[in-house]
Amino acid sequence: MMKKILELKDIKKKFQNKDVHKGISFSLFKGETVGLLGYSGAGKSVLLRSIIGLEEIDSGQILYNDQKIDHLDENELNKIRQRISYSFQSGALFDSMNVFENIAFPLFEHTILSEHEIDLKVSQVLNLIGLKDAKELMPSDLSGGMQKRVGLARAMILDPEIILYDEPTAGLDPVNIEIILNIMQNFKKRGFSGIFVTHDIPAAKKVCDRLLILKDGKIHFDGSPNDFDKSQDEYIRTFSMSC
Amino acid sequence: MSSITSLKYFETTGKITHLFIQFTQACFSRPFYLNRLLEQIVRLGIGSISISLVIGIMTGMVMTLQFGYGLEKFGGTLYVPAIVSMSLMRELAPIFTSLLIAGRVGSGISAEIGAMNVTQQIDALRALGTSPIRVLVVPRVLATMISLPLLAMLSGFSGILGGLFIAQTEFNIPPGFYLNKVFSSLSYGDVFGSMFKCAFFALIITLFACYKGFQTKEGTKGVGNTTIWVVVNASIVILISDFFLSKLLILLF
Ligand SMILES: Nc1ncnc2c1ncn2[C@@H]1O[C@H](COP(=O)(O)OP(=O)(O)OP(=O)(O)O)[C@@H](O)[C@H]1O
Ligand SMILES: [Mg+2]
Q1: Which of B16, B72, B114, B215 would bridge B223 by S-S if both were Cys, CB 3.0 to 4.6 A apart?
Q2: Cβ-based neighbour number of residue A57 at 10 Å
Q3: Contact call for B127 and A95, based on CB within 8 A
Q4: Would you give the distance in Å from CA B147 to the centre of its chain?
Q5: What is the pLDDT of residue B157?
Q6: d(CA B151, CA B50)
């Protein structure tokens, strides 16, 4: 039996009078990458943001290694956020810092590495994402695909246990998508876990052990990519056609 | 309608007070960002030296001109140095410099933090396990609280020199006499009282700017509205609190 690393129990979340989540429950096991699918506006980003406490859930529980992490204060959340990291849908790079400074930021904040060690580590990561020449560039000088890769690198640099990928491949060309999926697979090979939000079903099938479908504020489907293909459920059939 | 407005007013006051408490807590606990503080002192403080000089010199010159001609009728030009230096150091330099800093620094900080907020960079700071209060608010507030009192004094003293020039050229008051009168009428209380007021105004400006920056929502238009709100409200609060602070300082010194 694999170890449960993250567990969501009956999560509910409402904005003004719009119910986004109406009772979401699922678990993430160690070493596993789970795909989270659903139409635009289904609440995928809000769910990822809730896990690391950027949004406050209304009810339910979020457990990380059996420790309750919803409704913690910011100081405690900041410790959790070094273990569970979130790669933003928009990249969210710091536009006053260059690529190197963006990726090095978490290292300067949370480690006691020397500047030389940080330099080395960031250079390695830049090689990995194929951007070793972009070190000095500012975010505004990067293409969308490059920004996403830098955002992903920044989310990975502290070797978190879980990464929440928010549409890391959206809007990219096939070559860039391949690079990102490779990075994700490498991360997984090292035994870490992830939740992969995407509209790209083939990509999800490629890296994910399990797929979840979010519909009307609940998990409509939870199963292996194989079960997904074989499912006779009408919603899933139309969903897999439309994406 | 008016009950909604007053409710909003209390809500805003409460939130700014909360931000102030978070700021104070962050000031007295690790980690500190000394390099970020210095960076902001250079950007916000040193970057404002030239406009502070202009305000000071021009105010000192025009005040000397006005008082000089006003008092000449009564044969009172001798009192010009004392009046000009006292009004400059106690009120005009602190207030004019603070209002200008509210415009320059207040709008700058609120636009910067507002833009970071709408592009999710504030969320990114939090998601990376750091506190936006420590990283963004503390350096800016402290830098302004350190810089503004010094800028106001610089402005005041340059105003006295501007006055000296006009006093000599327009009214034939010798510089030696002028300076003598200035230093015998100014007290340390005037200087430190004004610096204290300016530190308080700096706190108002930067807390308003940071608070409104974090509240900024709707894209670019939101950023524009944010800067307007900060400059207008900080200026009003500065002018109102100046009266009460001045009263307090007069009682103390
Ligand atoms: N801060 C907020 N205030 C009000 N409503 C919000 C807020 N954030 C998200 N929502 C709403 O919650 C719903 C879910 O949004 P979310 O961003 O999670 O969708 P998503 O599934 O990630 O969509 P996409 O695939 O387009 O990224 C949307 O209807 C959105 O309008
Ligand atoms: Mg989304």
Answers
A1: B114
A2: 22
A3: no
A4: 9
A5: 94
A6: 10
Q: What is the pLDDT of residues A164-196, one digit of tens each?
A: 999 999 888 888 899 889 989 988 998 899 999
Domains and CATH numbers, chain A: 4-91+157-242 (3.40.50.300)
Query: Confidence class of residue B164 from pLDDT cuts 50, 70 and 90?
Result: very high
Domain that holds residue B211: 2-252
> Is it the case that residue A58 has pLDDT exceeding 80?
yes
Sheet holding A84-87, edge to edge: A84-87, A162-166, A193-197, A33-37, A210-215, A218-223
What's the CA gap between B41 and A173, in Å, rounded? 44
Task: Kindly give the number of the ligand 1 atom that is closest to the alpha carbon of A16.
Answer: 4
User: What residues of chain B lie within 8 A of the CB of A79, using their CB?
Assistant: 129
Helix ranges (H only) for B73-218 are 80-87, 93-101, 107-118, 121-127, 132, 138-171, 175-185, 188-215
pLDDT at B189: 87
Report ipTM (2 d.p.).
0.92
Question: Could you give the number of structural domains in chain B?
Answer: 1
Short-list A111, A172, A98, A203, CA closest to A142: A98
The answer to whether B4 contacts chain A (CB < 8 Å) is no
- The model carries a pTM of 0.89
Say what the pLDDT of residue A197 is: 96
